[in-house]
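User: Can you recover a sequence for this backbone? Please restate the input before giving your answer.

Assistant: Of course. Working from this structure:
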């Protein structure tokens, strides 16, 4: 696998006490910056291809990855409907993330999900958090040997419970996931009443997300 140089933009505005509109804007800017970093790295590889045929093949991969990234953007936009089938939408998100970020690493995203109807606004926030966890895993968890991210979704005792774990490099138990993405995850989870916990595991990183199904959040989110 060829090494890639990552290009990115940092969010310098603090997210403490961020109002809902600014928080969602920060999430969108961060997500878009990550997507543009992927696009820049791929185009750079195509630019440095040894032959025209190599460049053409590389650009075909760029097309597929950008198409998947665009699908993620559409999936995470403000919902039009009041209710969301969260299990089905989560499977769509993971399929797009696998195509956009994991395929070339030889890494896989496995999902076990059930149909859970939820308020679309809350479901969107939970999807944003899971999407950022997947982006973090793609960027930091695996080396050239690849790996697996497992996502298990269940509904029990009036809560949605989603476990996201990978068999990658891992972080220390009890530590926050580092970076700007972690600040956004924390702020989104706080705003929507979602409990986000890094769990102890022998290999890799495991994050548990728990959201009461009946919780009500501000219409502005």
């Amino acid at each position: 696998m060829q090494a890639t140089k990552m290009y990115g933009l940092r969010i310098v505005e603090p997210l403490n006490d961020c109002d809902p509109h600014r928080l969602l804007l920060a999430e969108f800017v961060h997500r878009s910056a990550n997507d543009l970093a992927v696009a820049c790295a791929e185009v750079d590889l195509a630019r440095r291809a040894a032959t025209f045929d190599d460049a053409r093949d590389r650009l075909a991969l760029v097309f597929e990855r950008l198409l998947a990234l665009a699908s993620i953007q559409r999936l995470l936009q403000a919902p039009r409907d009041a209710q969301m089938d969260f299990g089905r939408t989560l499977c769509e998100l993971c399929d797009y993330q696998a195509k956009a970020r994991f395929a070339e690493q030889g890494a896989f995203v496995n999902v076990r999900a059930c149909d859970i109807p939820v308020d679309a606004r809350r479901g969107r926030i939970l999807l944003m958090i899971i999407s950022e966890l997947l982006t973090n895993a793609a960027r930091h968890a695996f080396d050239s040997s690849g790996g697996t991210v497992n996502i298990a979704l269940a509904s029990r005792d009036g809560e949605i419970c989603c476990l996201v774990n990978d068999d990658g490099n891992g972080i220390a138990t009890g530590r926050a996931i580092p970076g700007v993405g972690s600040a956004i995850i924390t702020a989104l989870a706080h705003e929507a009443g979602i409990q986000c916990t890094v769990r102890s595991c022998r290999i890799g990183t495991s994050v548990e997300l728990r959201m009461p199904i009946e919780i009500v959040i501000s219409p502005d989110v």
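That completes the design. Strands lie at 83-85, 107-112, 117-119, 147-156, 159-166, 195-199, 206-212.
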